[in-house]
Write a structure and sequence with these properties.
alpha+beta, HIT family, subunit A, 5 strands, 27% helix
């Protein structure tokens, strides 16, 4: 009678390197799955409901908690929670309106001035080679939060696009949001630079 062989220890299994490095970003799964996607309703979140509009709730806390870079009278600037690149900011009116045409003249003026200041801050903080600036109005146009107008300011560098977003729906970001926010706050133009 033959005695059964003892199972092979895992440490003795063949180890063949596959040539890939792993970038673990489990926090991105919440975004990919759409967990906690806001309903678009203004006001604070209630315990029974889905989160309310993030652009209405962000200014309610401290700047650090809300990732606020700058507060104006009618509009403010916030870091994108799911940035395309480090320094990806959003310019938002405080008022919960869905379209650019819904802004008052005063809001439109500050919205534009803060967009320019956001560009200046990113240039001073990280010297990008270019920018994408714009807004998506309506779900069909790609708006993630279509009920509250916001304009994207995305710094760009040569080679910042790679296979990760295409193949793995993952974006590699070299700095933490908190660190990026502080760099932009420190680089924010003085009031004399606003609006020119």
């Amino acid at each position: 009678m033959q005695t059964p062989e003892a199972p092979e220890e895992a440490s003795k299994f063949a180890r063949v390197k596959d040539g890939f490095q792993r970038l673990w970003t489990p926090h991105r799964m919440a975004y990919i799955r759409g967990e906690g996607k806001p309903s678009g309703k203004p006001g604070p979140k209630s315990k029974a409901d889905r989160p309310q509009c993030p652009f209405c709730t962000a200014p309610e806390g401290t700047d650090a908690e809300g990732l606020i870079v700058h507060r104006g009278r009618t509009c403010y600037v916030v870091l994108n929670l799911f940035p395309y690149n480090p320094g990806h900011m959003l310019v938002c009116p405080y008022r919960h309106v869905p379209r650019y045409l819904d802004l008052t003249d005063e809001e439109t003026s500050e919205f534009t001035a803060l967009t320019k200041d956001a560009l200046r801050a990113v240039e001073a903080a990280s010297q990008p080679m270019g920018f994408n600036v714009g807004m998506n109005q309506g779900a069909v146009a790609g708006a993630g939060v279509e009920a509250h107008l916001h304009q994207h300011v995305v710094p760009r560098w040569g080679g910042d696009m790679n296979f990760l977003p295409i193949i793995a729906q993952t974006k590699a970001l070299p700095s933490l949001l908190e660190d990026t926010r502080q760099e932009l706050v420190d680089a924010w133009p003085t009031p004399s630079g606003a609006g020119d």
